[in-house]
Specification:
homodimer, alpha/beta, about 15% strand, 14 strands, Aspartate Aminotransferase, domain 2, globular, three-stranded antiparallel β-sheet
Chain lengths: ~375, ~375
Amino acid sequence: MEKRVYNFSPGPAVLPLPALQEAQRDLLALPGAGMSILEISHRSSTFGKIIEAAEANLRKLLSIPEDYHVLFLQGGAQLQFAMAPMNILRNSGKTADYIICGTWGNTAIKQAKTQGPIRVAWDGKETNYNRMPSNSELDLNPDAAYVHFTSNETIQGIQFQTEPAVGIIPLLCDASSDFLHKKVPVEKYGILYACAQKNLGPAGVTVVIIRKDLVERSCEDLPSMLSYRVMAESKSLYNTPPCFGVYMVKLVTDWIMSEVGDLDKMYERNKKKAQLLYDVIDASEGFYDGHAERASRSVMNVTFRLPDPELEKPFLAEAAERGLMELKGHRSVGGFRASIYNAMPVEGVELLAEVMKSFCKKNRK
Amino acid sequence: MEKRVYNFSPGPAVLPLPALQEAQRDLLALPGAGMSILEISHRSSTFGKIIEAAEANLRKLLSIPEDYHVLFLQGGAQLQFAMAPMNILRNSGKTADYIICGTWGNTAIKQAKTQGPIRVAWDGKETNYNRMPSNSELDLNPDAAYVHFTSNETIQGIQFQTEPAVGIIPLLCDASSDFLHKKVPVEKYGILYACAQKNLGPAGVTVVIIRKDLVERSCEDLPSMLSYRVMAESKSLYNTPPCFGVYMVKLVTDWIMSEVGDLDKMYERNKKKAQLLYDVIDASEGFYDGHAERASRSVMNVTFRLPDPELEKPFLAEAAERGLMELKGHRSVGGFRASIYNAMPVEGVELLAEVMKSFCKKNRK
């Protein structure tokens, strides 16, 4: 078999090996079905059990309350950026508040503007999005249709340590890049959504956890595929769902429950992995320049720069030699980004920390 | 390994075994990449080659002219039902003509009505959608924004033998259930779209072949994910595409080219398979009651009823015993439906013909 590398890509991203192995084993024929998950009818009892198990796993891991739907949709977070305001802002007669902490917050607001009036409750652009705001900094409209935020800014490597306090205004969250990295209090959210390709599965399936009363408020005149109401009433089976993606969500959440335990244990593991890298940054006496302010550091995406851009190619080459791939940062931040989602093995992060230490030793002046 | 059955499901449907085998072989790590197709960045050169190859295969098989884009989108035909009028009907000041020949034509018009004014150019409901119209029966508006039709009605098992003649009005086609079953003259179409899960790959990716001048006419104020212009300008990489689905489209089209040859050979094979079943129906002296009028018979979905509904369960049981699955018809037509897409092996159809003959012999009064 082809040797696997350590994949630090921000998404699509590393998946748990046991989940990949099970998918591989059964790819020609699911046990008892005699056909592939890629071929099986979405109306079959076999697939029915798979989508129910995927939902049950998510409900158990996150203790999702009964008054929330769990939907499996297509189109990624990008489509949710438009679909959320399309359903609950258009025709509300209100405006929506957006907290902008980085690239994805900016993308979310751009898409939302096609659907209705938007207000900015905070924007971190003055410091090139290197921190999350405190609650006291938020300029919230008490009559907003909702408040939207991005729990983890993948590109900047900054993360809310706890969700913003917005009182009774519905809180909408794009959790694409830190979904399931720890247990969050779902009851504080109106909508919590995440594309799969970072912490949950392959690209092509998006999980939307939505409070039932918000579904009731959905606009009436929407195309079925863009209506939360239609998707909730049909239990995500209005049309053919992305069956393989849903299946992978089941396998990945199976892995969390069987190999890790629960989301508290997942979080412990994630914090340890991140600490390995932040410790190297902090001990490097400025050789590694972390982009994020300490209090906003992301447990999922660790961003750092080198003192001299000339050193970037040698660093990437040295990492690649050890099988550490996809570490180049986004041009808006520069330097490097190590995405260390749930499925990144501790060994991969330990190896990266080792390479960073040795590179620093050799190149620090 | 689990034994594979013959899967006559209307979709998701049978896929070519060599494509499944290649996907299985490489599922933990693509050759040269060291990571799974489920984990690889959509911005990587490895994925770039895959999406380019998928497009090149489609262009070659269908001789797609240079003035057409080939897009890989999400949301299935269902989203195209809304997205097409959203892009080129809204703000056109015109109405669109719909030819309604069955369940999917009706669904298409329902979604289109959320976007603009629609006219019915023909509706086959009086005879429960058992035939396609002739050109002379179409009531076309010479100033329509476009004419929409469904090339093959999956549930009814009826198919256009050639596309309707609409002059210079843009012709839009939902070809979800017969895409690539034969070569069609793409230059006669404005938009030709198909979800993958019948003839092309797994659920979750949709191919949209669109004439470039129609993209230019797209509305300006749409969310990016719903804009043909944005998707065309970004070559389907505005956001993370459904990478695995695109990969499977490549493998399935590779299979057509390497194992079948071209779409003319594919069509010969498809016609032979369908003839095997229609011959049994025609020779059964009315025991099998085909739903479709002869001139509209589908090469992809063969629909038929039994003289007595009491015989349905025994027929399904006998078929299942021989490994022939998913033959139950849709309730709106009754009886049975054998979906015999490109990937259904001739042997599967021969076996079904044999079971049908023997069942008829035993049960004909």
